[in-house]
Each structure stands twice: as C-alpha cells, then as structure tokens.
Amino acid sequence: MSFDVNKIRQDFPILNRKIDGKPLIYLDNAATSQKPQAVIDAIVAYYQTHNANIHRGIHTLSEEATQLYENTRKKTADFLGARKPEETIFTSGATAALNLVAFGWAVNYLEEGDIILTALSEHHSNLIPWQNVAERTGAKLAFFALTENGELTEEELKTKITEHVKLIVIAHISNVLGTIFPVKRICELAHAVGAKVVVDGAQAAPHMRVNVQSLGCDFYAFSAHKMLGPTGVGVLWGKMELLEPMEPTVFGGGMIDTVSPNCATWAEIPYRFEAGTPNIAGVVGLGAAIDYVQTIGMQNIEHHEQELTAHTLRQLTTIEGLRILGPKKAQARAGLVAFTVRGIHPHDISAVLNSAGIAVRSGHHCTMPLHKELEIPASTRASWYLYNTKEELDKLVEAINEAKKILR
Length: 408
Ligand SMILES: Cc1ncc(COP(=O)(O)O)c(C=O)c1O
What we know:
This protein is of the alpha/beta class.
C-alpha cells in the first residue's frame, strides 16, 4: 500500500480537534498514541454485539468473545514473528509484562553474585523491577556506559558482557535518547556467555518491524496504547522453554488446572499467566490496531518516521542554545527528540507550545537516572508517528523559536 499521510490522518477523529482555536499538533506519541476509528469501532462493536466473559462459557457470546480474544493472540504472535501463539501473554501493559518476567522468572533464575546488565537510560519500568530482583536474589546491577551521543559501542558491549552477566535488560529504543540499541548484537554476545536478554520494546514495536526470532532475544514486552491500541493492554512474548519454568505472579480464576482446599495446579501456558477476567475489549482493540498498522505496512511507517526525524533534526540543530539528547544522526534514532534550551525551563517551553496547539511532554520521562547523568533536571520531548507531517514539525520548530523570544 502506498503511504498517504493525509489519507491516514482522516482515520484519526481526534486530529480534527482544536486547542484554543488552533489545530491540534499531537507530538506526545511516545507517551501514548492516538486511536484510529477502526480501533474505536472494534471496541464498540465488541461491547455492542459480542460482550461476554471468555474461556468459561459454552454460550454463543462467550464463544465469540473467546475467539476474538484468541484471534488477537495469533495476530500478535505473527506480528512479533513468534513461533507459536502460546508464547504471547496478555498483560495490562509493558510495565506489567516486565514485572512478570522479573518476579515470575528472574527471581528464580538469578543467584547471588550474578550480574544484571542494563543502561542508565532505561525507563523506570525496566529498571525498578530489576533493582528489586537484585535485592531479593543478591544479584548485582551493572550499567553499560553510553557515548556522549547516547549510543552503545561494540567495544563497550564486549567489555561489559562477561561470563558473570546472567541477564541483560535493555530497551529496543530509548524513550528519551531515541537511540535504537543494537539488540541483535547484544543477544549474540549475551548468548555466547550463557546470559539471557529481556527487551523493553515499548518504543519500538509500534514504529518498526520487530521479529523476536531474528533479534534472538529471550523476552520482549510492549504496550498496545503506544501502537494505536487502547490503554490497559500489553504483551509479554517469551521463548516457550523459558515460559515453562516461569511462575505465575497473580493467582485466581482462569489460571488453574485443579484446585483443592490447600493447593492448586496451573493451567497451560499462556493462561496460567492471565489470572482473572482480562481486558477483553482492550485485547480486541489491540487486534484492530495490529490490522491497521499492518495494512499501512510497518516498513512504510518506519520510513515515514525516518523522514520526519531527519527533517526535524536538521531544523532543530539550527536553533541556538538547543541541546539534542541522544544520537545526532537520524539513522541511529527513532521518531522522537528530547531537548533542552539554555536558560529556559522545559515546562515553560511546553506551556508555550501548548498555546500554539502543540502537545509535547516535559519532565524526566520516567528516566531520572539518565537525566541525573546528563546533569539536567528535565527535558522537553517531541515524538511523532505515522499521522504526523513535516508541516507540523516545522510548526514545532517555529514555536520553539517563539518560546525563546517570549521566555528569555
Ligand atoms: C521505554 C518504555 N518502557 C516502558 C514503558 C512503560 O509502558 P506502560 O506505561 O505502557 O506500561 C514506557 C512508557 O512510556 C516506555 O517508554
């Protein structure tokens, strides 16, 4: 399918909104994406015509709801290049998925003295669970050193990935630096020393083709809401041989095989990790989101975002006093730029941009250690997606220049 951004925009009703009389320019996609009508319709249609609890009923509605839910599992597995649908577990989001690997698997896998290798740029959702795992197991956290441009060198990988490392936890794409980390290479080096790799794909799965088998990772997590889907749904993919020894972390209905007064046995994978009534409508919405991005084509989305990134970087580098966090070359990064402007607080920039109808985010973006390392309290982040245009990014640059005039 050819990529027509203006046609795509028509699928997103919220893009018709005005903010204080100005057209909305939505550049907060790294926090959450907007939803196309097809996703909204799928959720409404589910509630209007199929709503029932899944797996436990033999009436028609329950069977339909179960089929919709399980169809999405198949779609998600295909989307990630998984070997089988059962390797795909639905959670409430990337955070819950990472917590499930941490407390269902890593606490039993790691021992005292083992090293968990990660980066200071990780989102708190992919750092704090591992701090806690380290505390419980006696394992130690170690950190890759990133270059000034927020990249990971081959030399650094070879220095840090030693036989003491048992686990590497890394974002596929940093939500602040925008860096695309060399996950495939990390997996090769990790496996050569017998370590496993957990990938936080929250910022990658929505924006680029991901194939967990060609990446070679052991676990991969992402959230539906950053990929045109609803909030409250996420995915944990894991290799079946690692899911088998993984323990459930939430207990209750739907995850058991047999129950007696004092003990219980678990249902098959993936059901043992999906206790209670799941977010069925949300999963159905994720299915519609996957259909949508696949119809557009992940490669087309990636290409469009790359063009916007190159265009935006070129312009931002002309703004005096503006510091771009992360790689300076567009090819090394994804569709987001976090920055600071000398002498102006990021929150003030965001406020001025908001008055121009532009939605960006400022703060530490759940990466306090990274901001501390960069010696800045906060940054402003603009992040784009398939429906954003060059004209919108030109307006961003214009508005930053305007903010400088007002605030200095
Ligand atoms: C890199 C990264 N990891 C994890 C998360 C957590 O995602 P969620 O809040 O959807 O669980 C985010 C969200 O911003 C993120 O950017």
